[in-house]
Amino acid sequence: MIIVLKPHTTQENISRVENLIKRRGLDTHIVVGSEMTIIGCIGDTTTIDPKIFEVDSSVDKVMHVQEPYKLANRAFHPENTVVDVSGVKIGDGNMAFIAGPCSVESYEQVLSIARSVKASGANLLRGGAFKPRTSPYSFQGMGLEGLDILCKVKEEVGIPIVTELMSSEYLDIFNEKVDLIQIGARNMQNFDLLKQLGQIDRPILLKRGLNATYEEWIMSAEYIMANGNENVILCERGIRTFESYTRNTLDLQSIPVLNKLTHLPVIIDPSHAGGKWWLVPPMAKAAVAAGADGLMIEVHNDPECALCDGAQSLKPDKFDHLMKEMTQISSALGRKITYA
Ligand code: PEP
Ligand code: MN
After folding, report:
1. In angstroms, what is the span from residue 223 Cα to ligand 1's centroid?
2. pLDDT number for residue 93
3. Is the CB of 237 under 6 A from ligand 1?
4. How far away, in angstroms, is 291 Cα from ligand 2 center?
5. Distance from residue 115's CA to the centre of ligand 1 (Å)
6. Is the CB of residue 186 less than 8 Å from the CB of residue 209?
7. What is the model's pLDDT at position 46?
8. Which residues of the chain have pLDDT under 50?
9. Which terminus has fewer CB within 10 Å in the chain: N or C?
10. Model-level pTM?
């Protein structure tokens, strides 16, 4: 942290600010120029709110030179993190191909989709049992019954499952039964829930909030990590912009940016980003080419009749074709796919 004092600050005022800094447990390095004085703060500034120094009338501005996150920070952990999801490795060149319906609708539906996406090469099955819907009148998901269906299909087909947890009420049951716990865009800043996810070991798939900056998103990962669970995977799913033609705008820049800022795996959800099935293949391929550690894609065997997000779901044959292309791009880039 660097503190810039107002021009012509007296020695008495400089000493006062220096004392304020030292009272917070930091050392100082003072540079006195002909007009300006700059104080460098030395020590751990992660728990200090820089605004507190702006209260002093001699302080002009305070600048952070270190990011506010530590555990997720690439600077303190240069190697890529590999998260193990029940035997499926994700990160550092290991790809996650997560596919399945938006919502669990019936045993037969999930079974049929699971068999086909697995045959196409997916290594994880998705399906929402608890659904965060904008309208209270829309299908809200099958809840625990949906979770049971996912578990039965997992046994039958032999593929680990990813599903969204919306409330800490079900944390224990998810911890026991779900291989990768998804935290949706709308709960990215549900800090109480994030803290509780830190108490378990299960890998967490943390989606980006609808309006979240990179730093806010990484800080949410930091919440989980700081509470003890370092198995976090980040998932970009499109952000709100002025464009209304697409559901959201897919931020592919998030891949290189997050790879620079953090060591955590980064995957892309092109389905919720575009909101249209025909946008999914080009964006999915671009994401793999840009260095994503995987994808989450909605696949439905009867999208016209889907209870949720049919318009953005690929039919199994289209997903199969896309997997062939993504496998080629992945292997051209030296990436691997592991299976449970
Ligand atoms: C989902 O993946 O089913 C979902 C609701 O996504 P998001 O939280 O990104 O909207
Ligand atoms: Mn969906």
Report:
1. 20
2. 95
3. yes
4. 24
5. 22
6. yes
7. 82
8. none
9. C
10. 0.94
Q: Which residues pair with 80 in a beta bridge?
A: none
Q: Does residue 33 contact residue 65 with C-beta atoms inside 8 Å?
A: no
What is the C-alpha separation between 114 and 130, in angstroms, rounded?
18
Residues 6+ apart with CB under 8 A from 290: 252, 255, 256
276-330 pLDDT, tens digit per residue, is 999 999 999 999 999 999 999 999 999 999 999 999 999 999 999 999 999 999 9
Rounded CA-CA distance 119/4 in Å is: 61
197 lines ligand 1 (CB under 6 A): no
* d(C-alpha 263, C-alpha 204), whole Å: 15
192: tokens are 């109480």
Return the ligand 1 atom nearest residue 131 CA.
5
> How far is Cα 159 from Cα 88, in angstroms, rounded to an integer?
10
Please report the pLDDT score of residue 138 as a whole number: 96
Atom 10, ligand 1: residue with shortest CA distance: 185
Exposed/middle/buried for residue 11 (C-beta within 10 Å: 0-12, 13-18, 19+) = exposed
> Distance, CA 340 to ligand 2 centroid (Å)?
24
Tell me which residue of 55, 14, 15, 21 sits closest to 41, measured CA to CA: 21
- Among 266, 290, 252, 272, CA closest to 217: 266
Tokens of 96: 């996650």
